[in-house]
Structure formats: C-alpha cells, structure tokens
Design goal:
Blueprint lengths: L1 H23 L9 H11 L1 H22 L4 E9 L8 H4 L1 E10 L6 H67 L5 H36 L7 H13 L4 H11 L1 H21 L5 E13 L6 E12 L7 H67 L5 H36 L7 H6 L3
Antiparallel strand pairs: 1-2, 2-3, 3-4
Helix pairs in contact: 2-5, 3-5, 5-6, 5-9, 5-11, 7-11, 8-10, 9-10, 10-11
C-alpha cells in the first residue's frame, strides 16, 4: 500500500511540473490583424526604445539649460595672514565667511538661444522617433501584403497541380486509345513536374516569410485576409485630392520638419551672435563676515551689491566672422529646405498618379472577375448535372483562380501604393492630429 502511494506521489511530481512547463512556454494566440501585428512590433522594437531614451535625454538637457538662467548662490570661507608681516603672525591671522549671489540674467541673449537649441534638439528626437514608427508600420504592412499574395499563389498552385494531374490522366487515356502520341504525353508529364516544382517553391517561400515575421514580432500570425480586401475596397472608393495630400505632406514629412527646424535655428543663431557686440551686464550681491586674529582684535560684517559691465573693445574680428558663418549657414539651410520641398512634392505627385492608374486597373479587373465567376457558377451547375467532365470543371476552376490571383495582386499593389503615398507624406494614416500632439513640446 505504501509503495503504491509513493508511486502516485512520484508520478505527480514528474508529470505536473512538465505540464506546467509546457503551458508556460506555449505561444500566445496568433495575431490576426495588421493593427495587432504592428502594435506588437512597436512595443518590442529595440530601435524605438533607444529613440525614447534619446528623447528623455533631450528633455533632461532642456531642463539643465533652463536651470542656467537662475542666479547662483555660493558660500565661501577663508583663513589666512598677511605674508608681508610674517613677524607679527600671531596678531595678523584672520578668517572670513561670504555668501555670494552671482547672476548674469542677460548673457547677451545666449541663454535664451541655448534654450531654443535644446528645444530644437528635443523636437528633432521626437521627429526621428515618429519617422521610425512610420517605417516599422509600413514594414509590417509590406510583410503582410507579401504573405497574403503568397497564400493566394499557393492556393492557385495547388489547383494548377490538381488540374495537371487530371490532364495527365486524360492524356494517358487518350494515349492508350491511340488518340495521342508519346511526345504529347511526355509534354504533359513535364508540365505536371513543373507544377509540382512551382508549388514546392511557393510553399518554401511562404514558410520562410512566416518564420521571418514571427521572429520579428515574437508571436505566431494568422492573418484575416477579409480585413486586407476590405481595406482595398474602401480605398477604391476613397476620394483623394492631390492638393490636400501635398498640403499634409509638406507639413508632416519628417525631412521637411527637420529642415524647417534647422532653418529656424540658423536664423536664430545669426540674430543672437549679433548681440555679442553689445555690452555684457552682470549682477552681483553678497555679505561677508571677517574675524581678525580669531576675535582678539576687531570683527567686520560687510554687505556688497553692484553691477559689472563688460565690453569687448577688440576681439580680433571673431564676432564678425561668426556672423558671416551664421548668415552662410542660414542661406544654405533655406536652399536645402526649398530643395527638400520640391523633392517631396514630386514624390507625392508621382505616387499619386501611379495609385490612381492602378486603382482604375483594379476596377476593370473587378468587372472581369465577375464575368469569369459567372462562367464558374455555370460550369459548376453543368458539372453537377453531368454535362461536363471533372477534367473540364478543373480547367474552369483553375482559370477562375488565376484571374482572381491577378485581381488580388492589383488590390495589393493599390494598397502598397497608398501606403507608399502615406509614407512619402510622413504619416501612417490620414489622421494628422495625432502627429501634431506627439510633436508638441
């Protein structure tokens, strides 16, 4: 009896932990939408985590720069003697203690300029993070579109292989009946082998792409293709205004935002460097307490305040050259800003026209697919009624699936072009309010 209880207890110890371990290592539920996959990727991205650290560092730098505007208060103490009267050392020893307030509130405007520089640095870090988020979003969408096309190609390849097998059966029967020569039969066998190779290659590509996506997002996926097709259908009906797209792109594209900020800082640099030609004003204030010979003679308490005025009579032309350099940098930043605007306008226009053209082809393909679907429905009914053979039915099915694949590829191309258009505008959706909130300082 005791041995039996021991065996049961031993079994629980061995089996239960192994079950617990297998459950703890079980993969989470597969992600089924592009939105879920993108969200998971944005959370797990090390690049985005580094970008967020850069933003936090820029925020600390801004706070440090603002802190330099405040007055500095210090405590000083000393003990000493008059070296010229060393023979009277015992009587000339003294100590003192000072509280000093040192404040340069103007700094020729440079303090405020450094704050603007720190703000600019913070804004650029936020722009770079937003750009990285956009790139990750479109990278995931590109993966999903490629995966969807491969899935469709895999379905068509399976059907083509099935049809080729039927063709081979039909060819072998015709050969036995003497209605087909050996050469034609051999060609049919070669065609079947080609279909098998094509299916194998597509299956391998599909498996590799799935593995690549799952490794990046650390989760399995099971895409909802209805979602992708719905997006394509909605896009085919969306009214897109080129003028509005250009307006959005020129106000949200990261390159434009950074060039605009560089232009602004270059202009401020030129303005603030000119202030170096003005006198520098500094305030000081402090109190001191002196104890001569450690209190054996007289004690003194003083309080002083005043203004220090500094003016550079000669600087070797340093400020003059700084102004020239700042002016040249501003002119350069202005040219770069205008050039970037032109390039982005051309990119948006070209992609827009490609999108409109492809959307038109997609609508034509949609009507063609409807006609072939009608033929498929008719062939299906004739097959059920025994009017056509299984071989003829397979051929019609293969023709429909091939046409459907072409239409699907046009849909995916339309979606990809729309995503490219959004990317060239610097956004992941047409909701620009979210972007402006993220870039606020």
């Amino acid at each position: 009896m005791k041995n039996k209880k021991f065996l049961i207890f031993f079994f629980i110890l061995i089996v239960y932990p192994s079950n617990a371990f297998s459950q703890s290592n079980k993969l989470p539920n597969p992600l089924s939408s592009i939105e879920e996959i993108t969200k998971e990727m944005l959370i797990s991205s090390d690049e985005l985590k580094v970008a967020q650290k850069d933003i936090e560092e820029a925020e600390r730098s801004l706070k440090l720069t603002i802190a330099r505007l405040y007055p500095k208060i210090s405590l000083q103490g000393s003990i000493g003697t008059d070296l010229l009267r060393m023979q009277e050392f015992d009587r000339e020893r003294n100590t003192s203690m000072n509280i000093v307030l040192d404040w340069d509130p103007f700094q020729n405007g440079m303090a405020f300029f450094h704050i603007e520089q720190a703000k600019s640095n913070l804004l650029i870090k936020k722009i770079l993070k937003q750009k990285l988020e956009t790139e990750i979003t479109f990278k995931i969408k590109k993966y999903c579109y490629e995966l969807f096309v491969l899935e469709e190609e895999h379905t068509v390849a399976q059907q083509n292989l099935k049809t080729s097998k039927k063709e081979l059966e039909h060819a072998e029967l015709s050969y036995k009946q003497g209605n087909l020569d050996r050469s034609s039969l051999f060609k049919t066998k070669i065609a079947l082998a080609d279909k098998e190779i094509a299916l194998s290659q597509i299956s391998q590509s599909l498996s590799q792409l799935k593995k690549q996506i799952e490794e990046e997002i650390q989760s399995s996926i099971s895409l909802s293709y209805e979602e992708i097709m719905t997006l394509a259908e909605q896009l085919s009906e969306k009214d897109l205004s080129l003028e509005e797209l250009l307006e959005i792109g020129l106000s949200t594209r990261s390159e434009i935002l950074m060039q605009a900020e560089n232009k602004r800082i270059s202009q401020l640099t030129k303005k603030y460097i000119k202030l170096k030609r003005f006198p520098q004003v500094q305030l000081f204030s402090g109190s001191s307490f002196a104890l001569d010979d450690f209190g054996q003679s007289s004690n003194r308490t003083e309080f002083r305040t005043g203004i220090i005025l500094k003016y550079a009579l000669f600087d070797g032309g340093e400020v003059k050259h700084q102004i020239k350099t700042a002016t040249a940098n501003y002119e350069k930043s202005l040219l770069e800003y205008n050039q970037t605007q032109k390039e982005i306008k051309n990119q948006i226009k070209n992609t827009y026209h490609k999108l409109i053209q492809n959307r038109s082809l997609m609508n034509i393909s949609k009507e063609k697919l409807k006609l072939i679907k009608e033929d498929l429905d008719l062939a299906e009914q004739e097959f059920k009624d025994g009017k056509i053979s299984a071989y003829e039915w397979e051929i019609v099915t293969s023709s429909y699936l091939s046409t459907k694949l072409k239409h699907t590829k046009l849909k995916i191309t339309t979606l990809a072009l729309f995503d490219q258009l959004l990317k060239e505008m610097g956004i992941s959706s047409l909701n620009t309010k979210k972007i402006k909130n993220e870039l606020s300082i």
